[in-house]
Design brief:
heterodimer; A: mainly beta; 6-stranded mixed β-sheet; 5-stranded antiparallel β-sheet; about 0% helix; B: about 0% helix
Chain lengths: ~110, ~110
C-alpha cells in the first residue's frame, strides 16, 4: 500500500518564527511531489511543487530527497495568514493513471 | 482562465439514495480526478477520467462510478448511499496526469 506520512502536529508558532514540516513516502517509484495547503472547510490549493534540487518561493522552501524518500517544507518569517493545514502529496503511477496520494496533513497555527 | 467548478456546494441525502456530483475542469485541462475527504483525513483518490474513459481507480466499490464528457467536464455518481459516504467530494483537473492538479471548492455530502 502506498503511503505518505507526515508530522502529526499541530504546530503552534509565534509570528515571525521559522517552522519545518517533514514527510516520508513509501513508493520509491513515485513520479512527482507537491505541498498543498488547505484552509478549514476549503479545497486543497497547490502551494508548490518539490524538486530534488530544492526550490524556493518567497518565504517557502521545499526539498526532496529521493534516496531517503523524504520531503520537507520550510516556512520562514511566519505570518498569521500561513495558518492552515499543510498536505504532503505524492503523484504515483498506478494502474494506468497518475494518482495523488495525500498525507493526513499537519495543522499550523501562527499566533500573534 | 476559468478554474475548476463543482456543483452542488452542499447536499443532504438519506441512506440508500443515489447522488450525482458535477465538475467542470479548468480551461485547457483534459484530465479529471475525483477524491473523497473525510473529516480530519487527507483526500482519498476515487478515480480519474481521461479521454472520456476511466483511467485508474482507487479502493472504492463499484457503486462509485463516473463519466467524462467531450468538453472534459465530469460527473461522480454514488448509488446505495451509506452513512460513511458523508464527506467532502473534491474534483481536480490537470493537463495529463503527472503535473499538479487543481481542485474545485468541493461538494459537501451529508448522509442522514
Amino acid at each position: 500500500r502506498k503511503e505518505v506520512e507526515q508530522d502529526p502536529g499541530p504546530f503552534n508558532v509565534p509570528e515571525g518564527a521559522t517552522v519545518a514540516f517533514n514527510c516520508t513516502y513509501s513508493n520509491s517509484a513515485s513520479q512527482s511531489f507537491f505541498w498543498y495547503r488547505q484552509d478549514c472547510r476549503k479545497e486543497p490549493k497547490l502551494l508548490m511543487s518539490v524538486y530534488s534540487s530544492g526550490n524556493e518561493d518567497g518565504r517557502f522552501t521545499a526539498q526532496l530527497n529521493r534516496a531517503s524518500q523524504y520531503i520537507s517544507l520550510l516556512i520562514r518569517d511566519s505570518k498569521l495568514s500561513d495558518s492552515a493545514t499543510y498536505l504532503c502529496v505524492v503523484n504515483d503511477l498506478g494502474a494506468g493513471s497518475y494518482q495523488l496520494t495525500f498525507g493526513k496533513g499537519t495543522k499550523l497555527s501562527v499566533i500573534p | 482562465e476559468t478554474g475548476v467548478t463543482q456543483s452542488p456546494t452542499h447536499l443532504i441525502k438519506t441512506r440508500g439514495q443515489q447522488v450525482t456530483l458535477r465538475c467542470s475542469s479548468q480551461s485547457g485541462h483534459n484530465t479529471v480526478s475525483w477524491y473523497q475527504q473525510a473529516l480530519g483525513q487527507g483526500p482519498q483518490f476515487i478515480f480519474q477520467y481521461y479521454r472520456e474513459e476511466e483511467n485508474g481507480r482507487g479502493n472504492f466499490p463499484p457503486r462509485f462510478s463516473g463519466l467524462q464528457f467531450p468538453n472534459y467536464s465530469s460527473e461522480l455518481n454514488v448509488n446505495a448511499l451509506e452513512l460513511d459516504d458523508s464527506a467532502l467530494y473534491l474534483c481536480a483537473s490537470s493537463l495529463g496526469g503527472v503535473g499538479p492538479q487543481h481542485f474545485g471548492d468541493g461538494t459537501r455530502l451529508s448522509i442522514l
